[in-house]
Amino acid sequence: MVAGGVESVCISPGSRSTPLTVAFAEHPDVRVFSHLDERSSAFFALGRAKRTGEPTPLVCTSGTAAANFHPAVIEANQSGVPMLLLTADRPPELTDSGANQTVDQEKLYGDAVRWYRDMPEPEATPRKMRMLRTTMARGVAASTGADPGPVHLNCRFRKPLEPTVTAEDGPASVPEDWAGGDALAAGGRDGPFLTTAHGEAVLSDSDRSRVVSAVDSADRGLVVAGPSDGGLGPDALAELAAATGFPVLADPLSDLRYGPHVDLTPVCGGYDGYLGTDATAAWPDPDVVLRFGASPTSKPLRHYLRDADCRQFVVDPSGRWTEADFTASDLLVADPDRTARAIAREASTRRAATWTERFAVSERAHWETVESACAERYWEGGVLADVTTRAPDPATVFVSNSMPVRDLDRFGEPRTADLTVLGNRGASGIDGITSTALGAGSATDDPLVLVTGDVSYYHDMNGLLALSRCDVDATIVLVDNDGGGIFHILPIEDHDTFESQFKTPHGLDFEPTGDLYGLEFRRCEGRAAFLDAFDASVGSGGTQVLAVEFDAERSHDRRDDLQTRVVDALR
Ligand SMILES: Cc1ncc(C[n+]2csc(CCOP(=O)(O)OP(=O)(O)O)c2C)c(N)n1
Ligand SMILES: [Mg+2]
């Protein structure tokens, strides 16, 4: 694996995994992240992979340890993030035998993995060594490429589990003369034992012409960049936008709402606040939509696309289906960058000035309203507006599910700063948020900012141990509205069980997490205090949790009020 490019590993303690643990821990070129909790460990590895595009293998012992990887496996599957799971297991005859800490680990994660392999017990014979090295290289390759995701290798080991070098220790022993570099042992072959070239899918000439002619005949077009881990890059987007003149709607998780490209390629980020309102009711539909990445975070945008009577091309190199409104008329299984560039090269430039201007005017009205609202009275969304406006350049910003990602979507204004914005939107769990963020932070020198809710913070408090054990610093913005504020926007708000079973106010005081995990816990009252603490935190080392308290209902009123103001302004 190391020969194939693996540089780090996440290991949780246990006995059955001893061979894997020792092999990684004693390897001079591997950085080991040691996690006591497998659930946090897997989310941490997920975060690293989200930031780097490469898998960080996970090692755990047999039994329920492996099951604790499952939530992160689901997220990696659904958001298409590389993950490599090495679960230790007993020899096959002990499955279903009543042996201690033995469970059925075969295909434990079901269809959530790209590839599963039940590894035979290791044996130092030529064929087994070639198989082992090939399989490890295949495992890394299968988790990356056009359809990245989790790979599960269930690794069976028989005692003795500790390293042995003599033949009397059994068939798993590595012969002494192999250690120095036999072609089949670890030192053999320069580089990976197997190199995989993934290649890139390219549209045929006729398919490309089909897209180009739809673009050419459109008066009004849109480019929609949804959440994505890799895919369409800023340069290809710039070419596409310049050639077509289509407005670009960039999801906050698309990696295209922020960055230097925004200077020359304006992107829209406020659409969640004005699309589908009275302000846009009289707009004509677009004629063509070019979509990249997953389904947008914004429900107004999803509904706008659903209701638009037009041709919609979805470009997805994995060929997976990613939009639940079933609006796509054409699925292009092709590399996004190449496809965008090809369309840019061949489309004849045309600009529908009124159409583009509608979006430009709406964006201005939206962002002016947000800016003045922040200065008037603070609300949860104001925190997201401030965080994105003031995060250092560069920075990695992770947002929890529930309201933080929605507020970022609506209130996070596009900027030229190089912000890598990440979230767990594959399955949208609120478990593992802290661990995923810290994993992402461990993979970059960027300052790390996490914006999380109080229930999400509670859910993954175990993850905070990675701050000290994995040497990560962060600015953690805790939007504390004492429960799940999001549930106020659902009809259940009017039912008796709303408070006790949905909003679930817990009254927890999180300040002791400061002493417990060695971080600075600061309560910030009001915007000015928060901004001071935020600027100080991102400019310093260590980890600060900046807790800002809000009333969830009042924040919702404020979101509605600001939307009304934008609509009024546009009228
Ligand atoms: C693992 C998991 N359990 C439950 C849910 C359902 N859920 C979605 S949002 C939410 C509440 C989140 O509360 P908080 O993090 O405080 O954010 P807020 O709603 O206040 O913005 C819950 C329980 C989920 N998405 N994931
Ligand atoms: Mg909350």
Could you write a compact summary of the structure shown?
With 571 residues, the chain is an alpha/beta fold. The chain has 20 helices and 18 strands. The protein has helices at residues 18-25, 38-52, 64-67, 70-79, 126-142, 205-216, 234-244, 271-274, 299-307, 336-346, 353-376, 380-390, 403-411, 433-442, 454-459, 466-469, 498-503, 512-517, 526-538, 552-570, and strands at residues 8-11, 31-34, 58-60, 83-89, 115-119, 150-156, 221-225, 248-250, 267-268, 288-292, 311-315, 330-332, 395-399, 419-422, 448-453, 475-480, 520-524, 544-549.
Structure description:
The chain has 571 residues and is an alpha/beta fold. It is 37% helix and 15% strand. The chain contains 20 helices and 18 strands. A 6-stranded parallel beta sheet has the order 2-1-3-4-6-5, with helices on both faces. It is globular, with a radius of gyration of 25 Å. It starts with 7 loop residues before the first strand and ends with a helix.
How does the SSE layout of this entry go?
Layout: E1 8-11, H1 18-25, E2 31-34, H2 38-52, E3 58-60, H3 64-67, H4 70-79, E4 83-89, E5 115-119, H5 126-142, E6 150-156, H6 205-216, E7 221-225, H7 234-244, E8 248-250, E9 267-268, H8 271-274, E10 288-292, H9 299-307, E11 311-315, E12 330-332, H10 336-346, H11 353-376, H12 380-390, E13 395-399, H13 403-411, E14 419-422, H14 433-442, E15 448-453, H15 454-459, H16 466-469, E16 475-480, H17 498-503, H18 512-517, E17 520-524, H19 526-538, E18 544-549, H20 552-570
Parallel strand pairs: 1-2, 1-3, 3-4, 4-6, 5-6, 7-8, 7-10, 8-9, 10-11, 11-12, 13-14, 13-15, 15-16, 16-18, 17-18
The structure holds thiamine diphosphate and magnesium ion.
The site of magnesium ion (MG) has 7 residues, from helix 15.
